[in-house]
Protein: ATP-binding cassette domain-containing protein
Amino acid sequence: MAEVTLHNISKSFGGLTVLPDLNLTVPDGSFTVLVGPSGCGKSTLLRIISGLEMPSGGSVRIGGTDVTFEEPSKRGISMVFQSYALYPHMTVAQNIDFGLRLAKVPAAERKARVTEAARILALEDYLDRKPSQLSGGQRQRVAIGRSIVRQPQVFLFDEPLSNLDAALRTQMRVELAQLHQSLDATMIYVTHDQVEAMTLADQIVVMKAGRIEQVGAPMDVYDRPQTAFVAGFIGSPR
Ligand code: ADP
Ligand code: MG
Structure:
């Protein structure tokens, strides 16, 4: 597990300032959800935490270590995207195993980790199938399985359920909450879906135009919105 701290993070693309100056602490072991309208900078922030994007200024600490200039693979994080990016020609087991093979983890250890991930994600009966033979929810589980086997300290999710239909989204929400409990890891989860944010988060971060409007427990934010934007976005009674 690891705390993630962002200190004075800024990001500009050419003349466009996406994140002016952002400070945030993601507590060790929390399920922190970043929520806000499309284009407010959520993915950019996640990419900065993961190291896929360099901030223009400021620092990123994971587990107390400054990783601002550390390459993604050395940060102890794993990112799950909305498009699952599975390898179509590989089986489920091979897809889950792929990163471990690259990292040259010994074969017996790899097999044990793939088996454990499949158990957690209820994929035991699908290990020999190809992605094309799976449902959307099963594919998304395989994508999560690829993260789990790496045993990251921090999981980053960028709208992982947005390609799924409503019923499946609800089911996967429950599964993600269970996953958080069983893995005991820090999770940072991005969504533009308020309901998803409210049901998954133990800490919710409401963003607007690259700035944090409010941070708190979901019910706090709902009951005591600090700005009209937060009240409107979360749907607080007024
Ligand atoms: P969100 O994930 O909240 O929808 P993003 O972080 O994807 O928002 O984008 C925030 C803003 O930054 C948008 O205006 C987007 O167009 C811009 N942006 C993101 N990535 C780039 C990039 N590589 N180059 C230029 N502009 C970008
Ligand atoms: Mg995004």
In short: Residues 40 and 164 are 22 Å apart (CA to CA). The chain is about 35% helix and 25% strand. The longest strand covers residues 16-26.
